[in-house]
Write a structure and sequence with these properties.
By secondary structure, this protein is mainly β. It has strands spanning about 15-25, 30-40. Helix content is about 0%, strand content about 40%. The model has no long low-confidence stretch (mean pLDDT about 80).
């Protein structure tokens, strides 16, 4: 089953890697398995910035 593309590939500019922890390494630390590596759509422009006087 193929899902429709919600965001075109041209606007996907941010590199992103998603990991999942699965099991343990030999030293007892958690093993991280990469489940996605590619470009995604993420914008920080929607954040509102306040100055010292709490004004926009």
């Amino acid at each position: 089953m193929k899902f429709p593309t919600l965001v075109p590939d041209e606007v996907c500019t941010s590199e992103c890697v998603i990991y999942r922890t699965e099991g343990l390494n030999l030293d007892g630390s958690k093993k991280q398995v990469e489940i996605f590596s590619g470009k995604c759509f993420h914008s920080m422009k929607t954040n509102q910035k306040l100055n010292a006087f709490k004004k926009f």
